[in-house]
Design a protein that fits this description.
It contains 23 helices and eight strands. By secondary structure, the chain is mostly helical. It folds into two domains: 372 residues, no CATH class; 138 residues, STAS domain (Transcription Regulator spoIIAA, 2-Layer Sandwich). The strands form two sheets. It has a six-stranded mixed β-sheet with strand order 4-3-5-6-7-8. Helix 20 links the parallel strand 6 and strand 7. The protein is elongated and about 95 Å long.
Length: 567
């Protein structure tokens, strides 16, 4: 049945139609100001993140303009800033670089094709309402992966700040290359990079509303012009083509698409998890709702638009969204403003960037991803002593040693393994009654509880299914064998299993038969309607006897308690 509160028709497809008619002059004014401030962050970052992705600088602005404008139409968040992000750019580079083999034109085509492929995957996920899949990457594993991703990006940007050659191999090998190359650093480049980082940090502390990335952009360009830093070995961006991109479908082969497909799935999962987290954070703060499946559709159309305009994968970054909200944004008019400024930059300002030092771009990237290496969060995971820190550290190490894509696959496998371990080996409890009550609790955890003479009340504390059916049966047999007094009846409390499968049903049949051969009865308490229906269809209920199925544990105990122990 449809939720009466769920938007319908045009309001469902284009959430902008919900709030656009309600705009006031004050809201538009606030949003335009916020959008201009956001452009001061996203325009420099777009150019910088294009470098991470390995595509020309203008591709970052193509992505920003397309992603921001299209998401504003289709997204359900009023604050999410959808543009290229550091994480998606790094994962894209790891996916595309081996296939392009140094061919820059092929590289750009593959990057745009990946964005289109990601868009189609997003739309397909929305059609089948698969938004829940992003929840299957556990937070500790995701934290470890993102931590490793942050380190990877910083290591790859370090040569830009130092004026040294880039290393090769995995992140560890590249980091070692940076260390051994330190004596050969270009001091002019190092000074530019250090000054850029210092300005960004100081402005962030002293004047957080000033777009620090834009400031260092301008200072870097002026410094190159005034002091001719390029003559001292300071690398500059060089000529950047002006103008808007043409709409075109990247020419890639079917084999290329098949090579990109698996990596694109992983990137989509990470991008969606980050975007949904950012959107929900500010939706909760401003008391409105973000619709997960609508977000999938919006991200899909945004990535299609980015790919068709020669851009790269876009996502909803937390830093850009936080800056948008902090700037006073109330609706997506702010991001539309940012998109327009990106377009104006492409049309009229690109020639200014040819004297931009690469060290400044590196400084912007390193500052932007510094928060990904969240040491405080890793310490918190360690302090909780749940074992989650080891999952996080394994994911981190996987990224550093195996690379971004293989590290991503490892992270997803770790989450899946943890899930399988949890559901295949649920804990169980032998229950006893608290004196003077009808409440039954775990005997191990509640010493005051009393075992019921002649009865074993057994409760699996998780869903029973084919992967844990054998373990459940063995645990029950062991509980019967280890009981302090002879058992006459076993009461199975199935309140934690709203459904069971055929494997569990057959295990229950075998248990019933074994217990009967040993003179022990089997009864059930608190079974759900689907379980009762399966018992009935299979004939198990007839063999068990309707009298051995009870609504509650207390009623089962009252009926089955041996006569000599009844009050």
């Amino acid at each position: 049945m449809r939720n009466e509160d769920e938007p319908r028709g045009l309001l469902r497809i284009l959430p902008i139609a919900n709030w656009l008619p309600e705009l006031s002059a004050s809201t538009v004014r606030a949003d335009v100001i916020a959008g201009a401030a956001l452009a001061g962050l996203l325009v420099p970052e777009g150019l910088a993140y294009a470098g991470i992705a390995g595509v020309p600088p203008q591709a970052g602005l193509y992505s920003a303009a397309a992603g921001l404008a299209v998401y504003a139409l289709f997204g359900s968040s009023r604050h999410l800033a959808v543009s290229c992000t550091s994480g998606s750019a790094a994962m894209l580079a790891a996916l595309v670089a081996p296939l392009a083999a140094g061919d820059l034109r092929r590289y750009a085509a593959l990057a745009s094709a990946t964005a289109i492929l990601a868009g189609l995957l997003f739309l397909l996920s929305s059609a089948f309402k698969l938004g829940f899949l992003s929840e299957f990457i556990s937070k500790p594993v995701l934290r470890g992966f993102v931590f490793g991703l942050g380190i990877t990006i910083m290591v790859k940007q370090a040569p830009k700040l130092l004026g040294i050659e880039k290393g090769h191999g995995d992140t560890m090998a590249q980091a070692w290359q940076v260390v051994v190359s330190l004596p050969r650093s270009n001091l002019w480049t190092l000074a530019v990079g250090a000054c850029a980082v210092a300005v960004i940090v100081l402005l962030g502390v002293l004047a957080p509303r000033i777009p620090s990335a834009l400031v260092v952009f301008a200072l870097g360009i002026v410094a190159v012009q005034q002091f001719e830093l390029n003559r001292h070995g300071v690398e500059i961006v060089g000529r950047v083509p002006a103008g808007l991109p043409q709409l075109e479908l990247p020419l890639v082969s079917r084999d290329d698409l098949s090579e990109l497909f698996t990596g694109a799935i992983g990137i989509v999962l990470i991008v969606y998890a980050e975007a949904l987290a950012a959107g929900r954070t500010f939706a909760a703060k401003h008391k409105y709702e973000v619709r997960p499946n609508q977000e999938l559709a919006a991200m899909g159309v945004a990535n299609l638009a980015s790919g068709l305009t020669q851009g790269i994968i876009v996502g909803g970054g937390m830093s850009g969204t936080a800056a948008n909200e902090a700037g006073g944004a109330r609706t997506q008019i702010s991001t539309i403003t940012t998109a327009l400024i990106s377009v104006l930059t492409l049309l009229f300002l690109m020639p200014l960037f040819q004297n931009l030092p690469e060290a400044v771009l590196g400084a912007i990237v390193i500052h932007a991803v510094w928060h990904l290496a969240d040491v405080k969060e890793m310490r918190r995971l360690a302090s909780l002593k749940t074992g989650s820190i080891w999952a996080a550290l394994t994911a981190l190490a996987g990224v550093l040693v195996l690379g971004v894509l293989k590290g991503l696959i490892l992270a997803m496998c770790l989450t899946l393994a943890a899930l399988l371990k949890k559901v295949s080996a649920p804990q169980d409890s032998v229950l006893g009654r608290l004196p003077g009550t009808g409440t039954f609790v775990d005997l191990e955890k509640h010493p005051a509880a009393e075992a019921i003479p002649g009865l074993l009340i057994f409760r699996p504390n998780g869903i029973l299914f084919f992967a844990n059916a054998n373990r459940f049966s063995n645990r029950l047999r062991a509980a019967v064998k280890d009981a302090a007094s002879p058992i006459r009846e076993v009461i199975l409390n199935l309140e934690a299993s709203p459904e069971i499968d055929v494997t569990v049903l057959d295990s229950l049949e075998q248990l019933r038969s074994e217990l009967k051969d040993n003179g022990i009865g089997l009864a059930f308490a608190r079974i759900a309607d689907p379980v009762r229906a399966l018992f009935l269809r299979s004939g198990f209920l007839d063999r068990l006897g309707e009298a051995n199925v009870f609504w509650g544990v207390d009623s089962a105990v009252a009926a089955l308690l041996p006569v000599e122990h009844r009050p």
